[in-house]
Design a protein that fits this description.
The complex is a heterodimer. Chain A is mainly α. Chain A has helices spanning 25-45, 60-65, 72-91, 109-112, 117-125, 151-163, 174-184, 193-198, and strands at 3-6, 17-20, 127-133, 136-142. Among the domains of chain B are: 49-72 and 194-279, Cytochrome c-like domain (Cytochrome Bc1 Complex, Chain D, domain 2, Orthogonal Bundle), CATH 1.10.760.10; 77-161, Ribosomal protein L7/L12, C-terminal domain/Adaptor protein ClpS (Ribosomal Protein L30, Chain: A), CATH 3.30.1390.10. The chains are: A mainly alpha, B alpha+beta.
Chain lengths: 201, 298
């Protein structure tokens, strides 16, 4: 780039030689400015080469901000996430339960009950003893898996149970969960099916 | 050749850089692509084609459909919108006042306060009304939150936009095409010329196999003024066996129908191509291309 051919002056048969001269300052400056502008553009529009970021989105953060956040769909998504990390391992990702381990949730009368009081007691206190689900007796020992979840997470996961796999029952709100949790107070006791039946629905 | 090594080095760097940019980096980025999940669903995407449709891709390729049709919907923007669907116990006038008071105190709403106040000022009291449409998803989340606590109902959605997508423009798809859509295409038929419409969502736009077959046999019979050539080689025009007409024969309008006593029967290739066209669907939201499906927006 910095080489300049000069024709030779001492005799027509001599080999041409090249001399060195420095590149003009303005070219260097323009190149650096172009590099900077290009780098800045890449930084703000390139999405860091993520395979998930497509124009018109410029970054993973911007794409994240466009993911559905509110409304029934968002609650279902949150509930599904919680379900798959907490409940699904025993109850199955499809809610069908596992023989000898956990009863089904799809079509279960406990899940589909009109009120959510009994349903909310199960994750908040755990189950110990026999419980009848869809006409079958289960002898269970379930820990209080939901006690550590926030009200909104537990509400979302119970809503998910009540609206997935063909289940069609009402939503559960964080306030509903808070009410049950306050009732239980600081003394959760694993419940059996008979004890649950004695509670209001 | 004093400069031989430098020339070699320069050539190596130049070729190496283009190899890196055009071959290696894209392979690193998308070479390990797998099935992905449909947004807010446990269903995977894309759906594997049936055998017939997989063969149809080769027919599509053989007849050079990609010379005039693309399979890539482009998107130029996305907006997030929130609409008011129910006022709860409010009266419209009080609700206007409530929104104005919210704008002043909720920090997320401050930057868009002029738009919000403008929208609500111009509202004639009818529902649903769009409270906000723009790029700031925090505004939508904050509004949905606040309005839920006072008993009003809202409906938030994400809308992809662009000349390929807008209903009043080309309306070829609901979102842009992304790499995941082509996972099972071998080879990918992107196309670059749009003499005809984009086909990435044709299975949703024209889901009737008879329509597809009639269109292949005589484009003008279903799309007036179509410039598409008729692919008659995909069909067999034959004599009707007396008393046993083919159940697959096309039912064509009079000016396109064959002579009396003849029928037009699609060949296996035609059925494969039609099955492939019906398998072209890009109507589900993905993480990389989010939007709110119309059926879910209730």
């Amino acid at each position: 780039m910095s080489e300049e051919n000069k024709s030779c002056s001492n005799g027509s048969n001599a080999e041409p030689t090249a001399t060195r001269s420095s590149a003009p300052m303005w070219i260097i400056v323009v190149t650096l400015v172009l590099l900077f502008v290009g780098g800045h553009y890449l930084d703000t529009h390139g999405g860091w080469f993520s395979s998930k970021v497509y124009a018109p989105y410029n970054s993973a953060e911007q794409l994240d901000s466009f993911q559905p956040k509110s409304g029934a769909a968002a609650v279902a998504a949150q509930g599904k996430k919680v379900y798959e990390s907490v409940c699904g391992i025993c109850h199955g990702m499809d809610g069908a339960g596992k023989p000898g381990q956990a009863p089904p949730l799809a079509g279960s009368e406990w899940v589909l009950a009109k009120g959510i009081n009994r349903l909310a007691h199960i994750p908040l206190e755990g189950v110990n003893g026999s419980i009848k689900v869809e006409g079958k007796d289960w002898s269970l020992n379930m820990a209080a898996m939901g006690a550590a979840l926030s009200d909104s997470d537990l509400a979302a996961v119970l809503t998910y149970l009540r609206t997935s796999w063909g289940n069609k029952a009402g939503e559960v709100t964080a306030d509903d969960i808070k009410k049950v949790r306050d009732e239980i107070g600081g003394h959760p006791q694993p419940v059996s099916g008979d004890q649950l039946m004695k509670m209001p629905e | 050749m004093k400069t031989g090594f430098s020339v070699f080095l320069a050539a190596f760097v130049a070729l190496g850089a283009s190899w890196y940019g055009f071959v290696y980096a894209p392979l690193k980025q998308l070479g390990g692509a797998k099935q992905t999940f449909i947004l807010q669903s446990s269903d995977t995407w894309p759906v594997q084609r049936t055998g017939e449709a997989t063969l149809g891709l080769q027919v599509y390729r053989q007849y050079g459909c990609a010379a005039c049709h693309t399979e890539q919907v482009r998107q130029t923007g996305a907006t997030t919108e929130i609409a008011l669907t129910s006022l709860g116990t409010y009266k419209p006038e009080d609700f206007k006042g409530y929104i104005k008071s919210l704008v002043a105190v909720v920090p997320e709403l401050l930057t868009s306060s002029n738009t919000l106040v403008g929208n609500i000022e111009n509202w004639n009291g009818q529902l649903p009304v769009t409270l906000y449409a723009g790029e700031d998803s925090d505004v939508v989340a904050a509004l949905a939150d606040k309005l839920k606590t006072v008993g009003a109902k809202t409906d938030a959605h994400i809308v992809a936009s662009g000349a390929d997508i807008d209903i009043n423009a080309r309306s070829w798809g609901t979102r842009q095409s992304v790499a995941a859509d082509y996972l099972y295409d071998q080879p990918v038929q992107l196309g670059s010329l749009r003499a005809g419409p984009d086909l990435s969502n044709i299975g949703v736009r024209a889901p009737d196999i008879n329509w597809q077959l009639m269109h292949l046999y005589a484009p003008g019979s279903v799309v007036p003024n179509s410039t598409m050539p008729a692919f008659r080689t995909l069909f067999e025009v034959r004599k009707i066996v007396v008393g046993h007409p083919s159940p697959d024969a096309l039912v064509l309008k009079k000016e396109f129908a064959p002579a009396d006593g003849m029928e037009v029967v699609p060949t296996a290739e035609a059925r494969e191509l039609a099955a492939y066209l019906l398998s072209l669907k890009a109507n589900v939201p993905l993480y990389e291309a989010p939007f709110t499906p119309v059926t879910a927006a209730k």
